[in-house]
């Protein structure tokens, strides 16, 4: 029997007081929300907060859990949260070539990976929460 190996990641859709979404421009996937793997001994919310800070320079508070996207083929579970900025300053990192807040419609157009755009849309639609989206890719 093969021992399963899973990856758990966490992301926060961060919305500021002007109703704009925080996006980073990654070197491989283009514009997206800050996201990354949960480290051993770290909670899901701690990971979302840490990844946002590392990739954007922004400190956040988690407002609510939104749901999970599971890539069954790759054994990846991405947990998604809604967050609000509480401090920090926008800055780039090795994982982010650009960082900024964008109006919702503009942000959705900037996110070219369909799956990532869908994640943002699900997090913005409170009626769909909590959600579980399972897919094979």
CATH architecture: Alpha-Beta Complex
Query: Biggest β-sheet: count, sense, barrel?
Result: 5 strands, mixed
Widest sheet: strand ordering: 4-1-6-5-8
Quantity of strands, as a count: 8
Question: What is the helix content?
Answer: 10-25%
Structural class: alpha/beta
Instruction: Describe the global form.
Output: globular
Radius of gyration (CA) equals 14 Å
Q: What's the pLDDT, averaged over the residues?
A: 95
**How many individual domains?**
1
Strand percentage lies at 35-45%
Q: What is the CATH class name?
A: Alpha Beta
What is CATH's topology name? Nucleoside Triphosphate Pyrophosphohydrolase
* First-residue to last-residue Cα separation: 24 Å
pLDDT under 50 segments (min length 5)?
none
Order of helices and strands: EEEEHEEEHHE
Question: Count of helical segments?
Answer: 3
CATH superfamily: Nucleoside Triphosphate Pyrophosphohydrolase
Task: Give a structural overview.
The chain has helices at residues 44-56, 104-110, 114-124, and strands at residues 7-14, 20-26, 30-32, 35-37, 58-71, 76-88, 98-103, 131-135. The chain has 137 residues and is α/β, with parallel strands linked by helices. It has a single domain (7-135), classed as Nucleoside Triphosphate Pyrophosphohydrolase (Alpha-Beta Complex). The strands form 2 sheets. The protein has a 5-stranded mixed β-sheet, sandwiched between helices. β5 and β6 (76-88) form a beta hairpin. It is globular. It starts with 6 loop residues before the first strand and ends with a strand.
Helix-strand layout with pairing:
Blueprint: E1 7-14, E2 20-26, E3 30-32, E4 35-37, H1 44-56, E5 58-71, E6 76-88, E7 98-103, H2 104-110, H3 114-124, E8 131-135
Parallel strand pairs: 1-6, 5-8
Antiparallel strand pairs: 1-4, 2-3, 2-7, 5-6
């Amino acid at each position: 029997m093969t021992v399963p190996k899973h990856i758990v990641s966490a992301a926060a859709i961060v919305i500021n007081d002007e109703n704009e979404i925080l996006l980073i421009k990654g070197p491989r996937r283009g514009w997206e929300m800050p996201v990354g793997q949960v480290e051993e001994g770290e909670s899901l919310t701690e990971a979302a907060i840490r990844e946002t800070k590392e990739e954007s320079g922004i400190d956040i508070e988690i407002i609510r859990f939104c749901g999970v996207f599971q890539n069954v083929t790759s054994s990846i579970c991405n947990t998604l949260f809604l967050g609000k900025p509480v401090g920090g300053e926008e800055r780039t990192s090795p994982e982010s070539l650009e960082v900024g807040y964008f109006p919702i419609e503009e942000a959705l157009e900037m996110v070219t990976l369909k799956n990532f755009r869908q994640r943002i849309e699900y997090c913005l639609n409170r009626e769909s929460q909590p959600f579980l989206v399972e897919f094979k890719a």
